[in-house]
Every structure is written in C-alpha cells, then in structure tokens.
Amino acid sequence: MLIFLPALLFASQENGGGHAEMSLTHQMTQLVIQLAVILFATWIGGKLAQKIRLPGVIGQLLMGILIGPFLLGGLGFPGFPQGLFPVLEGTIPVSPLVYSLSSLAAIILLFIAGLETDLPLFLKYAGKGSVVGLGGVLFSFASGAWLSTFFTGYDFFHPISLFMGTLSVATSVGITASILSDQRKMDSPEGVVILSAAVIDDVLGIIILAIVLGLAAILPSTGDGGSGSIDWGEIVWVGVKAVGVWLVFTILGLVFARKLGRFLKQTFKDQSLVTVMAFALALLMAGIFESAGLSMIIGAYVVGLTLSNTDLAFVIQSRLKTLHDFFVPVFFAVSGMMVNLEAIANGRVLAFGLLFTLVAVIAKLIGSGGPALLLNFNLLGASRIGLGMVPRGEVALIMAGIGMSSGIINQEQFGIALLMTIISTIAAPPALNQLLKIRSSGQKVEEGGGEKTETSFSFQSPEFAQLIISTFTSEMEKEGFFINSMEHGEEVIQMRKDDVFISLYIGEDGEATFLSDEKDVNLFKTALYESLLSVNKAAGALKKVFKPDEMAKSISSGSTGGAFNIIPYTSPDFVIRNLRAHNKQEVIEEMLYLADAHELLDDGEIVKHDVLEREKSMTTGMANGIAIPHAKTEGVSSMHFLIGLKPDGIDFQSLDGEPSTIFIMILTPKQGHGPHIQLMSSITGLLNRSEVREAILKAETSYEVLRILQRAQEENQAQSQKKSRN
C-alpha cells in the first residue's frame, strides 16, 4: 500500500497547476520520499551489518547499492515510472538534489573529523606518527598510481593514475579509534602512534587531493595513453598554492583558536546556538576553499581542527550528533548508489579491483608497519600499527565522490574505490582486535610516559555510582568544564576546560575509572571529595524529613491500583497456594525454587543474593498481610512475578507488626527498561482491597487466584473509565 501511495499523490497533482509548479512540487515530493527510503534502508542495513559484527557503514553502503539506480531504484512502478532513483545521464547517476545532500554530509563528516582530532596528542607524537603516516602515504600513493597505469594504459602522471593513488592514501580514524577504545588501547604506545599517524594520513591525503585536483585542470589528458608534455613549473605552482592555502588557514586557525572559542561563547552564549554558528563557519570556509580551487571538505576540516583545540569541541560534537545521524547515512547510501555493478562486474575490472585492494592493504602494512620497526616497536607492535592504518572508510569515499563529480574518474574506477573501502574496512578490524588481545608488549624496550594516569574508584553499586557521578559532573560544570557523555559498550564521560582533559569510564558494576594527565589527578579527586560530602550532607537531611516506614504504610493503604495489566507477567504455574515455609528466609527460598523449576532464573545464586540484599535495606513486608520481596537482578533475563499464600501467616517483619499471608515475588532484569515500578504499584493497589485479599486466600486453585486478580483489575479499569467520562 505504501508503494502505491505516491501514485495516488502524483495522479492528483497532474490534474491541476502550472507545468513549472507541478514540476517543482513533483521534485520536492520525490526528494522527501527518497530521503525516507534512504534513512529506513540504511538503518536496516546498518543493523544487519552489526549483527554479523561488521561496521554499520558497510551495511549502509550495500543498501545504497541495492536501492540505487542500477538495481531496485531503477525499477518503475505507479507514481515513479522511471523508478524511485532513476539513472541520470552524466558523471553523477543520481539527482542533483540528492547528491547535494550527500555533499553536505561530506562537509559534516570532515568537520566532525577535525573536531575529534586530539591536537595535543597529535603534536606530542607527531614525530613517530609522521614517520609512520608518511611511510603509509608514500607507499600507498605510489603503489596505487603505479598499479593504475596497467589498468588504464595511462602513465604515472596522468590525472586518473594520480587520483587512484590519492584514493589509496586515506585511513579511517573513526573505525580504528573504535577498535582501540573497545580494547582500552587508546593511550597505548601503538594506539597513540596509530591515531596520530592516521590524522597525518588524512591531512596529507587532503593536501594531495587539493594538488591532484589542481593538476587535473592543467595536465593534458590525452586518450593515447600518454600525458603529453608536462609544464613542471606550473605543477610546482599548483602544489605550492594548495599547500600554502591549507597551511596559512590552519596556522591562523590554531593561533586564534582560543579567541574564536571565546567569541563564540560570549556572543551566542546558548550551546545550541554556538554549535549552529560553528557549523556556519565550517560551511563558510568550505565555500572559500572551493572558490580557491581546493575542495570544500578541506575548509570544513580546517575549521574542525581549529575548534578541536578549544573547550567547545565536545559540546559541538554532542550537539551535531542528530545532524550527523541524519546526513551521514545519506552520504554512504549515495556512495553506494553511484556504483554501476554492470560496469565493474566484468572479469577484468573485478580482478583489477581485488588486486588494487590487496596492494592497498600491503602498502599500509609495509609503509606504516615497516617504519614502526625502527621506532622501538617489535614485530607485534609494528603489525598492530600496520593493521590499524589499513581501514579506508569515509575519507576515501568522499575523495572518490569528488573525483567522479569532477569527471576525473569514471564509474568503473569509482566501483574499484568502493570495493577497496569495503574489503579493507571488513578485513582489518577483526585482525587488529586479535592482535590487541595479545598481552605481550609491542615495544622492544618499554618506554615510560605517553600514557595517561588511570585512577579507579568502586562505588559498590551502579545506583550509588550514578548518584555520585551525577553530582560530580554537576560540580565540574560549575567549574566551567564542558561535559560530553556517550555510550561505547560502557558509559564514557569526557570533561574538558582549556588544556585539562579528563575521561571517566563507568562500569556496570559501579566502578568508575578516571583517565587524565598526572597533573590533573588532584583536581578531579578534590571535585569527587566535594561531591561525596554533598551527597552525604543531603542523605543526612533526608533522614530527618523522610520516614520510609510511614510511606510504605501509606502505599499499603493507598489507591486500589491503576490500569496496568499485571496478568502477562505471571502464570498459574507460578502460584504456591500453601507455602511450607516457616520464616522469611524459607519463603524466599521456596518461591525461588519454584522460579528455578520453571526456568525463570539464569543464575539462582545471584537472584537469591539480590533479593536478600533488598530485604536488608528495608523489609518488603507491608501492612494488611502483604509482603512483596523483589529485586532488579542480573540473574534473570525477563520480568515475572510469583505468588505464595500462607493463610496461617508468617512473621515477615511487616511494617504493621502483623503476620504476612500473601507473598508476591517480583524479579526484574537489572539491565534494560521494564515496568518494574508499574507492576509493583498495580499489585499493591489491587491487594489494598480487603475483599480481594480474602478471596485469594480462600481460592481453591491457582487459576482461581489469577481470575480474582484479573476481575479486580477489570473493576478498577471500569471505575477509572467512568471517572474520566465524568
């Protein structure tokens, strides 16, 4: 039905309006439907890729190929006779509107890449990183350009050969950084060298791209396999101009970074508006660089690199996340759409693509890993560095798109670039993961320094940890720190002010680990101490005004329950009509035995411990003969409740001092979201009615117990609906 909806829409449009208006309306309607399809398709592709442990971008690329003009996108159907993504003539096979959004996404990607550059780390390890990065660049560029001469028939200095060499240069900082972060190796000797070398790779790649784009305009592109006479003076001028423009703007940006940061904060104040204006600067610089004959992405990267040296970097990254999540899948999908499978499906092109990919991988392993052997790294360390430089990722795709839109490369060569990107991104991460898991050192001689100081605190429980950390981050914000929180397997909080940079990792077990420079350890310890004092003071004040036993009694005698349906979370099999237990401990153990018999427990010991721990904090024996032992625990994977009855009553240390006769045990998974409070509140409300309690205790079967609860719930819902109508 959704497929034919556009047909009805366009049919109604064709009956009225001028031709120009109808055409514009048609284009805009087609664009919004195309965007919707792209976003849904890339989300599905990303999820499927992650399920088989591949980077999500691979799934997005493949979905782009699938829905693109050369496959499903070119198939006509009512409303779209030429397909949703029809093949267009020219160098770019997708519509200008869609490609424009993809170009904007490329600007966002490179702006964020600049923001994410750890400039102090980059400068600190620029020596080793430069050697490793430069080695990878030279080997990759030379081998890529040289290999292309055999495929195209042109010589080394032909624009196509030079551009294919440029595509081999880039390294995906994001993919490699993700692997290093997972293994907590970001600050390891190999990690810092890989990251600084990857940044150098991308910077050099962008400079080479600017030079090659300039050369493409002046080098003769004859079709006889040669490149004609070469004006070396003009070539040198193009190179000097490209490097000079990039260098001048970069130096100016770094020199005035703090002043620019202060200007943005003082002028626009609101963090969202600061982010918008920072992005506006990136767009402005992108336009200036494009007008100067360089690429837009270089201008965006320079602005990002400038702001990375300010305390606004994390704030801007955080605020841009929604924009990133919207546009970047469009970029990867459009990159996939530009692949003409027919053009690369013939044996010659496919064989060359695989060979080009193999050489590109080897070039990084030798070009980056080889020099590492001369920098105090052993074979293991050098292999880690070489593999860390292999994934090409988004920068290579951006360059390929620029080459295609500029008419330098064709669809065959673009397909080869995409093949190299996909294979290098799939193959390298698992291999690097395995090498990082090896506990042996990657250095010939252990060196001190370089790594940040790691300080850990155990808060015993995740709940207490969250309370303390929430107070701590509030204290740091009052000190003028910018806070950025993200999920990466575990919660990571980044704090930055001027040159102080602190990372906080919060584990599921309530352990907090701080990573910082040695000089900043006392700073966060003092803030943490003040936070603990603040929480302790608040807890003391809370004890004076909050009386938990009185509140628990009010719950037991309060409302008669809400509209939440409790029945799906239990079963007649989960009811014990006559408990054998004689005390609190035995009640809990008997009900847990029943839960284990019905395979509700993943780990019975953990569940028992958590239920008893909850009882230690405060009894779950309420008033009116009700007891609700419960726990959020890692020992179960789904929420259920069990019912135990003891008409004679058991001392459960209830709040009113009376024996408990009805026991409801609620077990909820600790992780994830679930209606734990709603379930407890509804059960308590139903049992507040004396007639319900009496009927349950007199029930002759387990089924009857549930029917009584269900009838009581239906009566409550009917009364609630009646009140709402009145």
Automatic annotation (TrEMBL):
The keyword Methyltransferase does not apply. GO terms for molecular function: antiporter activity; transferase activity. CDD domains: PTS_IIA_fru. Coiled coil: none annotated. Keywords: Antiport, Ion transport, Membrane, Sodium, Sodium transport, Transferase, Transmembrane, Transmembrane helix, Transport. PROSITE patterns: PTS_EIIA_TYPE_2, PTS_EIIA_TYPE_2_HIS. It holds the Pfam family PTS_EIIA_2. Its EC number is 2.7.1.69. GO terms for cellular component: membrane. It is an enzyme of class 2 (transferase). InterPro entries: Cation/H_exchanger_TM (IPR006153), Na+/solute_symporter_sf (IPR038770), PTrfase/Anion_transptr (IPR016152), PTS_EIIA_type-2_dom (IPR002178). Residues 568-712 form the PTS EIIA type-2 domain. It is a multi-pass membrane protein. The keyword Transmembrane applies. The chain crosses the membrane at residues 30-49, 56-77, 97-119, 131-154, 160-180, 192-218, 238-260, 272-289, 326-345, 351-377. It is found in: Membrane. One of its GO terms (biological process) is sodium ion transport. It comes from the Bacteria. PANTHER family: NAPA-TYPE SODIUM/HYDROGEN ANTIPORTER, SODIUM ION_PROTON EXCHANGER (EUROFUNG). This is PTS system, fructose-specific component IIA/ IIB/ IIC.
